[in-house]
């Protein structure tokens, strides 16, 4: 996987004042989860979403827990995800599925957010236009923003129900703003950084929340 060299990373920080728009990823960037490498995978959040999905199947169909777990195990193989399978099965929207399965209190599942929070607040005070771009559903994004009290710092909050891939959003931003004035910050190179870099935007890779100290 292509990675940005440390020298390139510091070069971008040196010209930080040139950036007018800063695009932030959310999960794994503004905080860590307790999954593998601080990510969603095998985290409490992931496990809770699955448990809530199992319960939704039980409530809707009156089936046994093992039967519901088997259905969700198969749904996990869907190219779009559990929400796609359950929305079609129960005749409801994906947003309704998310509201029933992702309405989780972030208090118990996010950590190490103090330094990223300070960075966001400082950048906003510095007059930067801050956009939040997350693949997570609306309900989780809103819960996190409430918990961190950061919502008002972001001029735009773009959640996963609004796009197919982040590339679509970066392409739209590249038409609206000069790419050289945009900085993308994220922890996943393939999803958060590579699409932005390909359009001429600058990138800053977060491997640990303490990396935000370099910005403040």
Description:
The chain is an alpha/beta fold. The chain folds into two domains: 133 residues, 3-Layer(aba) Sandwich (Rossmann fold); 63 residues. 46% of the residues lie in helices and 10% in strands. It contains nine helices and five strands, in the order H-E-H-H-H-H-H-E-H-E-H-E-H-E. The protein has a five-stranded parallel sheet with strand order 3-2-1-4-5, sandwiched between helices. Helix 7 links the parallel strand 2 and strand 3. Helix 2 packs across helix 3. The radius of gyration is 18 Å and the shape is elongated.
Uncertain ranges: 6-15
Q: What is the architecture of the largest domain at the second tier of CATH?
A: 3-Layer(aba) Sandwich
Which structural class do the helices and strands define? alpha/beta
Helix content: 40-55%
Most strands sheet = 5 strands, parallel
CATH superfamily of the largest domain, by name, is HAD superfamily/HAD-like
Mean pLDDT: 92
Q: Work out the helix count.
A: 9
| CATH class annotation of the largest domain | Alpha Beta
**Number of strand segments:** 5
CATH topology of the largest domain: Rossmann fold
Q: Radius of gyration, rounded?
A: 18 Å
Shape: elongated
How many separate structural domains?
Answer: 2
Distance between the termini: 28 Å
Give the helices and strands as they follow along the chain.
Answer: HEHHHHHEHEHEHE
Strand content: 5-15%
The main sheet orders its strands as 3-2-1-4-5
């Amino acid at each position: 996987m292509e990675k940005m060299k440390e020298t390139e990373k510091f070069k971008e920080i040196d010209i930080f004042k040139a950036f007018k728009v800063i695009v932030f990823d959310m999960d794994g960037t503004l905080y860590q989860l307790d999954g593998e490498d601080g990510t969603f995978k095998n985290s409490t959040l992931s496990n809770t979403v699955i448990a809530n999905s199992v319960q939704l199947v039980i409530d809707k169909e009156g089936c046994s827990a093992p039967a519901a777990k088997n259905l969700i195990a198969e749904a996990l193989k869907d190219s779009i995800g559990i929400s796609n399978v359950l929305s079609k099965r129960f005749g409801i929207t994906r947003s309704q599925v998310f509201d029933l399965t992702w309405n989780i209190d972030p208090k118990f599942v996010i950590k190490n957010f103090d330094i990223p929070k300070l960075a966001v607040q400082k950048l906003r005070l510095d007059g930067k236009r801050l956009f939040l771009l997350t693949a997570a559903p609306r309900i989780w994004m809103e819960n996190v923003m409430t918990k961190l009290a950061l919502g008002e710092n972001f001029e735009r909050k773009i959640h996963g129900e609004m796009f197919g891939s982040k590339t679509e959003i970066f392409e739209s931003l590249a038409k609206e703003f000069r790419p050289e004035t945009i900085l993308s910050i994220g922890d996943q190179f393939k999803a958060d950084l590579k699409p932005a870099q390909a359009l001429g935007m600058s990138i800053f890779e977060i491997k640990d929340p303490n990396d935000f100290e370099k910005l403040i």
